[in-house]
TrEMBL record:
Keywords: Membrane, Oxidoreductase, Transmembrane, Transmembrane helix. The lineage of its organism: Eukaryota, Fungi, Dikarya, Ascomycota, Pezizomycotina. Gene3D superfamilies: NAD(P)-binding Rossmann-like Domain. This is Alcohol dehydrogenase-like C-terminal domain-containing protein. The chain crosses the membrane at residues 6-30. GO terms for molecular function: oxidoreductase activity, acting on NAD(P)H.
Amino acid sequence: MAFGDAVVFGLAGATAAMFLFGDGYLGLGLPRLDAPKKGKSVLVWGASSAVGGNAVQLAAAAGYDVVATCSRKNFDYVRRLGAVQVFDYKDADVAGKAAAELDKEDCAGIFMAAGSKDGNVAACRVAAASKQRLKLASSNFISNLGDVPAGVDVRQPTAATFKPFPDAWFEMTPATFEGYLSEALSRGAFKVAPPLLVVNRKGLDGIQEAVDLIRVVSERGLDGIKEAVDRASEGGRGDGISAVKLVVERP
């Protein structure tokens, strides 16, 4: 694996693993190669994001049927990562449609991988619309729990769920760098997501270039991503994405 690929998924993969498999969050079974199907579903909200793309792959590798939301143009990308069903998060009836899909079997929970405050509310509505009592683990802090519909079990980083770094790290290593991922990456069973962009300049000058590209993306959204791809030395590998990782090489 190239060093550029290695730096792309580290934090995003660890974050996804914590919320999917951590005891204080969804507490799913751990991934492994050729895992048997569990006959249970998981919803990943914001599946085309950096954390979401890793969450889709990890949950699928653990044997869950992954239902996902993203923008329509990202459907194929998210399916390639392992989702069995994808819904447009902009659909006015996305909560009802996603809940109906989850209720076709036992649902192990919902992971809010990315999105705005409105996305938090929408993901909570999926849980509320389900016939099951669902856990919702959110990487985006929900500050106003009054927005959460009654009966939704929200799991998010709080004083009650926070663990010292060494404890959290050793809890997650079976699902990440010392466990499943090591063999899965060597076999090509786990995809590096999202695509990387190597900036033109190296070292400190490259950091400034990366910051400038981040500004372009934040100000111009998807058009900014397209411009970042055009300006970087390596194009984003994969069409229809809503996230990229910028990589600065050493001089």
